[in-house]
From TrEMBL:
Organism: Bactrocera dorsalis (Oriental fruit fly)
Residue ranges constituting the Ig-like domain according to the UniProt record: 141-236, 253-327, 344-430
Name of the protein in its database record: Interference hedgehog
Membrane topology: Single-pass type I membrane protein
Boundaries of every Fibronectin type-III domain copy: 472-586, 596-690
GO biological process: axon guidance; cell-cell adhesion
Lineage: Eukaryota, Metazoa, Ecdysozoa, Arthropoda, Hexapoda
Length: 723
């Protein structure tokens, strides 16, 4: 890890006079600004590189929250607000002390780790606060919630059987009710007590069984169950549906259950606007919108039960009109409001300000998001709602009479149901002059001496700079592959930090409560996972996939990702949630019934790209959440490179940046929250050859390319589609 600068505290007892105070405050700001070459969209010299991340865990588990700064603070503390407290009541935050109340704090260099034993008493919000002198900066808070699942009785589903009589060839969505589950539940459906070979399950928080083009064989009594993927707890819903498929008199379109009139999704997700009308004969749907332009595009697909929108964008938000018609009046019209949720972003944070003690001050913070974010303010880590001198309305913070204690760091926070962000700046206060007396002690005005180098000046500054710019990878998502292996998925957010060369994966086996199984040290895998080429202008979130093998079944593990940067320094991402690697025996038929995809063909697209196409067996018992794509040079016996393909409906995937005119071999697995399928058969394909064009100049100066300068790894360009 990078070295960090050390600071010495200023002694203030002999300093008098307001001009000296103003000079020292200016000196503080200037020096800290010089130290902040990458200040994360604010003028602060000190900033939080990594805030704690929210977590979902079962009771008795252990969760680790991490907080990292770009330079060493004078002190760093954690505070906690219980989930029962009102979210707007800052009085309910309490500072934590290590080793008490199920908490343990470890500070190491620039990072602080808070270990929390999960219980009903430790659920709530956690936030780190760092002090530089008497100025303080706070992280965005993380929330610890409990894994849970329960039946939601608020949606009008009854315990009585519902009878449906439907004409053949209609498309039906079957739901037995809704559940409240954290994380979202995995659904199963049963006909006459036997598990249904599911053709599809809607990708929503409360899944539905899709029966497409029904016939008499689909008649029966349907029930449902929902399972929490972390705990394995399963609940049976009491609602039963008695379905009869038979020829009936000609009827106009109607709904078996009235679909929802409002749907929400986040950018990049896939959404389905449901319009599952039935009739005799079956109706056809025509979609339109009064305020969304060109709803028929390469991201939308008309399904028998609704309109699917892939890779959702903000411009997709609006009203959608579904008109169902089967030639028998009246036609059926359903209007659906589609809302695209967007995480908050601060468009303009509070400006760096100098003011006089006793003056009134007004600061502004402009934010955007959907829903529009709530804005609140902290001064030196303290909520301004607790300060009698302050009030805020909309985006403005007003300090009626500025006090010396207000000098320091002012932060604006914007939050909505999608996320939370913050921005901040310094506030300098010129104290009142007191004639004939020495000035009052400096009190809470933040003072910091200039940066002190040891040894070579440039060398010290270079070490400091690289610490500022290393953006860590995310916490990995873990999926079981086999009895001794898992697949990890993580991402790196869009940033302008130091380029990442490659990643390393670390893991360790955890002990059990009886201490019969000892906890092991962190192990590092041999594989270097390349970052690939980087486009600083257009690149957004970048996703990565890697597997870990050699594990033991029926054991708990944690995983984390280490990023190695262009300066050969490294930084670790947040640790994964505790993961239990179930054995095949414990899983039962889950993996055996997860369908293995069948590779159909490899389509050469260009000299550097191919498109792989596949299909799934008809009527699988379990439906996958997505697919793992594996590929390598056909002439190689080395490790496969891997990519994750999200979406159960996806049937093709583009793999880019391959070598020209070269043969590769490909294979696939399907996966869900519990397991991965067997591999497909291996299929080979070849990229197009380099097109040779006669050069107009007969001779050119050759450029020798060293072998080690050539790209070693092909990179996945995430373009997937439905077939």
């Amino acid at each position: 890890m990078a070295n960090h600068a050390t600071f010495s505290s200023a002694t203030t007892s002999g300093i008098t006079g307001s001009w000296q105070l103003s000079f020292l405050l200016s000196l503080l700001i200037c020096n800290q600004l010089k130290l902040s070459a990458a200040s994360q969209s604010s003028s602060l010299g000190v900033h939080i590189v990594r805030s704690p991340e929210s977590a979902v865990a079962p009771k008795g588990d252990e969760v680790v929250f991490e907080c990292e700064l770009n330079l060493a603070p004078d002190r760093l503390e954690w505070r906690f607000r219980h989930t029962s407290a009102r979210a707007t009541d800052a009085m309910n935050y309490n500072y934590l002390h290590g080793g008490e109340d199920g908490h343990n704090i470890v500070n190491e260099n620039l990072t602080s780790r808070l270990r929390v034993f999960v219980s009903s008493e430790t659920l709530g919000d956690y936030q780190c606060v760092a002090w530089v002198g008497s100025a303080a900066i706070a992280s965005t808070p993380a929330r610890l919630t409990l894994v849970s699942i329960s039946i939601d009785n608020s949606n009008g589903y009854s315990r009585n059987a519902i009878r449906w009589s439907v004409a053949p060839k209609n498309c039906i969505l079957i739901r037995c009710g809704t559940v409240s589950s954290n994380p979202p539940a995995v659904w199963s459906f049963f006909r006459n007590g036997e598990k249904v070979p599911q053709t599809e399950v809607l990708p929503s928080a409360n899944g539905a069984l899709i029966l497409n083009t029904v016939s008499s064989k689909d008649s029966g009594n349907y029930t449902c169950s929902a399972m929490n993927a972390i705990t394995g707890v399963e609940v049976r819903l009491p609602q039963r549906i008695d379905l009869r498929v038979d020829y009936i008199d000609r009827t106009p379109p109607y709904f078996l259950n009235v679909p929802v009139s409002q749907v929400t999704a986040r950018p990049g997700e896939t959404a389905v606007l449901e319009c599952p009308g039935v009739g005799s004969p079956p109706p056809e749907a025509v979609w339109s919108s009064p305020n969304v332009i060109n709803i028929y595009n390469n991201r939308t697909k008309v399904l028998p039960y609704g309109l699917q929108i892939s890779d959702v964008m903000p411009e997709d938000q609006g009203s959608y009109v579904c008109r169902l018609d089967n030639g028998i009046a009246p036609a059926l019209v359903q209007i659906i409001k589609f809302i695209v949720l967007e995480a908050p972003q601060i468009l303009r944070g509070p400006a760096k300000t100098r003011t006089n003690e006793g003056d009134q001050l007004e600061l502004e913070c402009s934010a955007a998001g959907n829903p529009f974010p709530q804005i609140y303010w902290l001064i030196n880590g303290e909520d301004t709602s607790l300060d009698n001198e302050t009030f805020h309305e909309d985006r403005r913070l007003v300090i009626r009479h500025v006090q010396k204690r207000h000098a320091g760091i002012v932060q604006c926070f914007a939050k909505n149901e999608v996320g939370e962000v913050s921005d901040g700046s310094y506030l300098e206060v010129n104290p009142k002059q007191i004639q004939g007396e020495d000035s009052a002690p400096l009190g809470s005005v933040p003072i910091r001496m200039p940066y002190e180098h040891t040894g070579n000046k440039n060398k010290g500054k270079r070490k400091h700079m690289k610490t500022l710019n290393m953006i860590p990878p995310s916490r990995p998502n873990v999926t079981r592959l086999s009895d001794d292996s898992v697949m990890l998925r993580w991402y790196v957010p869009k940033n302008d930090g130091l380029p990442i060369q490659f990643f390393k994966v670390q893991y360790r086996m955890l002990g059990d409560s009886s201490r019969k199984i000892p906890r092991e040290n962190w192990q590092t895998t041999n594989e270097d996972i390349p970052y690939g080429k980087r486009d600083r202008v257009f690149e957004g979130v970048k996703n990565f996939t890697s597997s870990v093998s050699g594990l033991k079944p029926d054991r708990f593990y944690r995983f984390r990702i280490i990023a190695v940067y262009s300066n050969n320094d490294n930084k670790e991402g947040n640790t994964s949630a505790k993961f239990f690697l179930q054995s095949s025996e414990a899983l039962g038929p889950t993996k055996a019934t997860l369908p293995a995809p069948e590779l159909l063909r490899v389509e050469p697209l260009s000299e550097t790209a191919v498109m792989i196409h596949w299909t799934l067996p008809a009527n699988p018992i379990n439906v996958p959440d997505g697919f793992y794509a594996y590929y390598r040079l056909a002439s190689s016996a080395g490790e496969y490179l891997k990519a994750t393909v999200d979406g159960q409906h996806t049937r093709k995937f583009k793999i880019d940046l391959l070598e020209a005119g070269t043969a590769y071999e490909f294979k696939l697995q399907s996966f869900n929250a519990l397991a991965a399928s067997e591999f497909s058969a291996i299929l080979q394909g070849k990229t197009k050859k380099v097109a040779t064009t006669p050069m107009p100049v007969p001779a050119v100066t050759p450029i020798n390319t060293k072998e080690h300068d050539k790209p070693k790894y092909p990179i996945v360009a995430g373009i997937a589609g439905c077939g």
